[in-house]
Every structure is written in structure tokens, then in C-alpha cells.
Write a structure and sequence with these properties.
about 25% strand; 4-stranded antiparallel sheet; about 160 residues; 3-stranded antiparallel sheet; alpha+beta
């Protein structure tokens, strides 16, 4: 049987479950509703909280929503590993398709069981977008084997 030279060496994919999607949207709705309610409260004449509550709501959004987005970005994607590059796809995100040539990868970190973080020479995207989700031990092992064969070393 002939081997397709254009077929990926490894394909890894992890998608959000309906429960995870519901929880992330529920958290965001609660945060943004709180911001709207605090602004409405101030418009009704409560001067004491006029500066405090909107600032606290914005701080809450930054403290909870931004890390939640980074967590989701790093753990849900489809990754295809080819002979010359790794392609990471996250439909619906700002950087929906990222192609990382092996020549630009300086190392990797596999400190988390859920993902492998890539280090690159000159990153053009945030670090969270360079994370490869590893939904199974088999896929994780295959990915680490390919990285080792390419001469890319662990950086922990």
C-alpha cells in the first residue's frame, strides 16, 4: 500500500463538550450582566458606587474572562503534524489557522498533561495559540516522538 506524502504524521483534536461550552458562556454572561447592572445602578443616582462598581466589574472581567479565554485557547484545537510544519486550527478564533515550520521551533514544554507548548524564534501570535492540546496519551507520545526526531528539545 502506497503512503500518501501529504498526509499528516499525527492528528490531535480536542473539542469543547456541550457542558464546557455552557459553563464558559454562563460565566461570561454573569460577568457582562454584572457590568451592565452596575452601570445602570449608577445612572439611577447612587453616587457612592459611581466610580467603584464599574471599575470592579471591569477588573472582574479582566481577572476571570481573560484567563478563561487563554485556558480555552490552549486546550481546544485541531493539530496536524506534517514533515515540515505543524498546523494548529481553532475555528472561530482570531488566529484560526497557524502554521509553525519546524525550522522556527526552538523547543517545547510538556509540563501540563493537557497540552504541549511550543517555543518559537519570533512569535507572531500570543503564546496560548502555540499550545497543542493532547487529548490522549497515545497522541501526546506520538507528538513528542516527532519533535524529538526533528531535533527539537524540551525546555522546562
Amino acid at each position: 500500500m502506497a503512503v500518501d506524502p501529504y498526509a499528516p504524521l499525527v492528528v490531535l483534536e480536542r473539542q469543547k463538550s456541550s457542558r464546557q461550552t455552557f459553563l464558559s458562556y454562563a460565566i461570561r454572561i454573569a460577568l457582562y450582566t454584572g457590568l451592565t447592572a452596575s452601570i445602570y445602578w449608577h445612572a439611577s443616582g447612587a453616587l457612592v458606587f459611581m466610580l467603584g462598581a464599574p471599575v470592579l466589574s471591569v477588573v472582574a472581567i479582566l481577572a476571570i474572562d481573560v484567563p478563561l479565554q487563554r485556558w480555552e485557547i490552549a486546550r481546544f484545537a485541531r493539530t496536524e503534524v506534517y514533515d515540515d510544519a505543524i498546523i494548529i486550527m481553532r475555528p472561530g478564533r482570531k488566529h484560526a489557522r497557524i502554521e509553525v515550520p519546524f525550522s522556527s521551533i526552538t523547543g517545547y514544554s510538556d509540563s501540563s498533561a493537557e497540552k504541549v507548548d511550543l517555543g518559537v524564534d519570533q512569535p507572531r501570535v500570543p503564546r496560548a495559540y502555540l499550545a497543542i492540546p493532547t487529548p490522549s496519551e497515545w497522541g501526546r507520545t506520538k507528538l513528542l516522538e516527532v519533535l524529538d526526531k526533528k531535533g527539537i528539545r524540551r525546555q522546562d
